[in-house]
Amino acid sequence: MQGTEIKQTAVFLSQIPFFSEVSKTSLEHLCEKLDTTVFRKKESIFEKGDPGDAMFVILGGKVRVHENSHVYGHMSEGECFGEYALIDNKERSASVTAVEETTLLRIERQHFVDLMLNDSGFAQGILAVMIKRHRELDSIQENLASSREALQLANSKMSGLINGAMDAIIMFDSSFKIILTNPSANLLLENEDVHGRNILFFLDDAGAEMLEKLVGSEAEDEKEKINNYLPQVVRVIGSAGKEVLNEGTISMYGNEKEHFYTLILRNIEDRLIAEDKINLLTTQAAYLEEEIKELTSNYGIVTGDPAMKAVLNAVEQVAGTDATTLINGETGTGKELVARAIHRMSKRNDKALIRINCGAIPANLIESELFGHEKGAFTGAVSSRKGRFLLADGGTIFLDEIGELPLELQPKLLRVIQEGEFDPVGSSETIKVDVRIIAATHRDLLSSSREGKFREDLYYRLNVFPVKIPALRERGNDVCLIAREMIDQFSTKLNKKPLDLSEADKALFLSYNWPGNVRELQNLVERAVIVSRNGKVNWTDIVPHASAGKTNDTKQDPERILTSEELIELEKENILKALKMTNWKVSGKNGAAALLKLPPTTLASRIKALGISRPV
């Protein structure tokens, strides 16, 4: 090459990656001894196995890199090939043929080596390119190694997922030959060596026909069903003959040449059995519920007393409305039964009846119980929680012992009643609810409101429709009717012979004051059934019958032996004295429990058992 041609060729070579780091001057030195060669279409440039004595740069045209008929790729203007021949003298590893008329720049190995030895700029440029390539190869190898590890990890996870699945997973090809199963599938098929076997052999006729239709269909709309639930239940027949009903899914994967299928089956035998039992129990429960309604009438409230019948009439009147109802009555009179009756007879009976005892929850937790809280609203609030009002949305909430609701929470309840909305603890979001409110108390809330212990406006909001439940001692012969009903129930429950109630027994029931009302009666009847023998029991040993007057007599006669009833009455009086002296404080340093030298839990149990309640 001469003059201008050398400069033009040097500029061309500088744009080729192999020479991109070589200086312009050094490239011109390279071009001084270069010649161009033209190859015709389909003319061989060199063959695989030829000596590697030069590299080529394509000035124009296109070549094919191949081995016989297998083509590795094509190269065109600006690309080079055979450069490894400049470094080593090994044979060509592939053949190169011109695809069209092609002009090549030939760089002889000896000329390249001379420049590397004599031209430091040329050597530095080539070395810089080789180092760059080496680093790129290192990076590629690192990425390949990372990809390999990631692939191995993914494969391990996939294997763990498949092998650990409770469902049976079966993969098969388009000829229905099984190619992979997980342990659950082997258990279902009752065979540890099913690879290569036909999946259809393990299905009944209907299941095999269905699977053949899904896999063999060529229609596009049918192919869509391949990646979906199976259209019917499949009966799998194991190698040992066990038949199991399964539901499942089928999916297809692969390429245009070959399709593979994944069948996932789930045993539904246990579920079907459970559903049958649930249906049976549901039917039985509905039947028994209807029977109980017919036997007891009035939603479990047994009565023949006019005063109690008036209560039931009031329940029927208010149930069809959404009016807030306040149920008042002594402890144990059945206030919750009345609340449930109102809910069942209301238009909300298909929704929940949510009950909360305001006196049984600590004051620092009741706000969260009623209205819910957000995560982190207070110490220990590790997650958000729905309150009882939100759970009762659309239904009814029964606020038992409403008189025990802390005074500071009463405005929040008043807001729910008036506006139908509240803010959960720790949240600025206002929640709307549609809730029917039924409250109950044994206290005189009006007197409490006058004493400043209960908000007067809340009392009037709750007392829209008051229901007063009479004490058991005021219901006449109801005590005998209820006792008879409870005897039958406990006798069945405890598998004991039903007890008889003589006229003397009934008279004993009628003579007792029943301070614990129906709850006390229930406890005594259960105790009687437990200790009874052959349907007999001495009710005088069960029902307290001592009068308070007898206790006074015993004080005047220290030689007299006290009965168990009199001892109970004495204990009750003694506890009442201690409670009054401590202003009804049960536990703590100056509480009644310390005064009586009893554990607070024991004293609380005795207060409940003796029917002791704090006067309003």
From TrEMBL:
Key words of the record: ATP-binding, DNA-binding, Nucleotide-binding, Transcription, Transcription regulation
All copies of domain Sigma-54 factor interaction, residue ranges: 301-530
Species of origin: Leptobacterium flavescens
Record-linked SUPFAM superfamilies: cAMP-binding domain-like (SSF51206), P-loop containing nucleoside triphosphate hydrolases (SSF52540)
GO BP terms in the entry: regulation of DNA-templated transcription
Protein name: Cyclic nucleotide-binding domain-containing protein
Keyword Nucleotide-binding: yes
InterPro entries xrefs: AAA+_ATPase, AAA_lid_NorR, cNMP-bd_CS, cNMP-bd_dom, cNMP-bd_dom_sf, P-loop_NTPase, PAS, RmlC-like_jellyroll
Gene Ontology molecular function: ATP binding; DNA binding
Pfam families linked: AAA_lid_14 (PF25601), cNMP_binding (PF00027), Sigma54_activat (PF00158)
Transmembrane helix among keywords: no
Domain Cyclic nucleotide-binding, residue spans: 18-133
Ranges in coiled-coil conformation: none
